[in-house]
Structure formats: C-alpha cells, structure tokens
Amino acid sequence: SARALGGNTLVAYSEELNAEAARRLDLEAQLVHAVERDELDLHLQPQQRLDDGELVGFEALVRWRRGGELVSPGEFIPIAEESGLVIAIGEWVLERACAQIIALREMTGRDFVVAVNISARQFRHPGFYATIEALLARTGVNPASLELEITEGAVMEHTEAAVGLLHKLRALGLKLSIDDFGTGYSSLSYLKRFPIDKLKIDQSFVRQLKPNSQDAAIVQAVIGLGHTLGIKVIAEGVETIEQREWLKRLACDEIQGYFYSRPLAEPQLFAFVIRQCRAEAAA
Ligand code: C2E
Ligand code: MG
Ligand code: MG
Ligand code: MG
C-alpha cells in the first residue's frame, strides 16, 4: 500500500542519513591523524598565460590518502573546516607549498607563483597573519611567489577586519586572489576596497562557454571589470581548445584546467615543468 511504501521510503532515507553521518564521523576521527601519519599530498595544477603561452604558476590542491582510498578535498575540507582541523591542515599545505616553490626555483632558476586555498575559518583564525609571517621568515621564499586564494564568503562577513588583514598580507608582498568568482556574494563594491591581484572565474561559467552564449557575456564582463580595476583574470576548468581560444579572444590573462594540465604529483610535475621550460626556451 501507499502507506507501507511511504514507511519504507522513510526507513531507507534515514538509513542513508545514518550511513552518511557515520562516514562523516569516521572521516573526522581519522582526519585528526592525517598530518602526523603523513597521509596528505599536495598536487600542483599548472597555470598558463594566454598571450605568450608561458607557464606562470600553479594552484596547490591537497589530497588525502586514507588507507587505499583517495578522499577528495571537496569531501574532507568541509569536515576539516567544521571541526577546526583545517587550521593544522592549512599550515601543512602552506609549508609544503613553500617547499615546492623552493624546489621549482632550484630546478629552473625561475620564480613560479604557487596559489594556496585558504578556507574561511583559516582566514579568520586569530593566528593566521603570524603563521604567514613566520612561514616566510623560516622558509625564506620570495613572498611574491606565494598567492593566497580566498573565497568571497570568507571576506564578505567581517568586512572591516578582512580589509585590514588583506592589506597587511599584501604589505608582506604576497599575491591575493578571489576564488570561484561569481558564485558567492554579488556585491562588487568590495573589489575597490580589497587589494586583490587576481580574479578566478569559476568553472561553472567556463564549462558551456561558446560565442554569443550568456556565459560568454558574463565572462567578458568579469574580464572587463577586472582589467578596469587593474586586476588580472584567470579562468578555471578550461578543458577544450575551443574554450581556450574563446578566452584568449576575450583577453583573459591566464587559464587553468585539464586542457593545459591536470593537477600533478611530484615526478610528473617536475617532468612537466622541465618540458615547458625547454619549449619556452626554444620558442
Ligand atoms: P577550487 O579551489 O576551486 O579548485 C579547483 C578544482 O577544480 C580542483 O578540484 C581541481 O582539481 C578541479 N579542476 C581543475 N581543472 C579542472 C577541469 O578542467 N575540469 C574540472 N571538471 N575540474 C577541474 P579539487 O582538487 O577536487 O578541489 C576541490 C576544492 O577543494 C577546491 O576548489 C578548493 O575549494 C578545496 N581545496 C583543495 N585543496 C585545498 C586546500 O589545500 N585547502 C583548502 N582550504 N581547500 C582546498
Ligand atoms: Mg582554488
Ligand atoms: Mg576555484
Ligand atoms: Mg571551485
């Protein structure tokens, strides 16, 4: 009967919720030990400048090897954010990113920019600025090689404090970018108050990008806005040559996505960088 069916659906639904909650608890309990057990990895995804095709930098993306399973940051970062573990994980990521900047410089003699994702909670943590300052002093990396990716959500609440902190970070010489631009708060007035170097156009606007589409109009407007304000624009999630060509015609500064390269672990990363540097030297 309909009633029995409704009852079964409810049971199934609540079992599903329980399974989800159980996985979450399980992940959280093991995430506590992920750093000390050396289960995290940092993959770097190359970024390409469009006018001359040069490799200019990378986005650092964290990976968690949990037993035989690779848990995606889309799943464990929100758990880390809620539990506060994101502070320790974030420090590990920053440390590792600085080590990569140094390794890449030693290998190529070039200063590449490595962009690190900073979660809202990490950004608002009272010790954040001191952590960055200590990191720069300890590792000696060129501050201009380290970019912090912040989301609109992280900076829009607590605006006064956020503006002050962004200026202090910028004064250290770091680069600052707004991640997933266009998906968060739509108030644009912060752009003139924040010392931002780069906007990252969210991949949702890039996926169906084609001439005369609504997405093309949005992307064109963002690029125009950025350039008017002296801010560079990078498009995320570029998977095809058509998307790349269209972004180039719209005067987008840089691209990142599977078309140029997937996020790379160390041996492949170094091979990619050496290949690009040789190709650019030959060009
Ligand atoms: P995000 O910062 O917007 O990173 C871009 C995501 O798009 C990455 O997913 C990347 O692997 C993926 N991607 C890159 N190119 C393409 C493409 O051409 N097509 C498609 N479909 N996807 C592409 P990933 O690595 O799974 O990371 C997901 C999110 O997790 C990131 O989104 C970021 O918000 C967060 N995250 C990753 N690493 C960290 C970290 O170290 N700290 C913090 N706080 N968050 C992180
Ligand atoms: Mg990002
Ligand atoms: Mg993004
Ligand atoms: Mg995203």
Give an account of the 3D structure:
The protein has an 8-stranded mixed β-barrel, surrounded by 4 helices. The protein has 283 residues and is an alpha/beta fold. The longest helix is centred in the first third of the chain and has 30 residues. The protein has 12 helices and 9 strands. The chain starts with a helix and ends with a helix. Bound molecules: ligand C2E and magnesium ion (MG) (3 copies). The site of one magnesium ion has 4 residues, from loops. This is GGDEF domain-containing protein.
Bound molecules: ligand C2E, magnesium ion
Structural class: alpha/beta
Count of extended strands: 9
Widest sheet, order of strands: 1-2-4-5-6-7-8-9
Keywords: Membrane, Transmembrane, Transmembrane helix
Protein name: GGDEF domain-containing protein
Organism: Herbaspirillum robiniae
Domain EAL: 24-277
Topology:
Elements: H1 2-31, E1 40-49, E2 55-66, E3 69-71, H2 73-83, H3 86-108, E4 113-117, H4 120-124, H5 128-139, E5 146-151, H6 152-156, H7 159-171, E6 175-181, H8 190-193, E7 198-201, H9 203-206, H10 214-228, E8 232-235, H11 241-249, E9 254-256, H12 266-282
Parallel strand pairs: 2-4, 4-5, 5-6, 6-7, 7-8, 8-9
Antiparallel strand pairs: 1-2, 1-9, 2-3
Helix pairs in contact: 1-2, 3-5
Q: In summary, what is this structure?
A:
It is built from twelve helices and nine strands. It has 283 residues and is of the alpha/beta class.
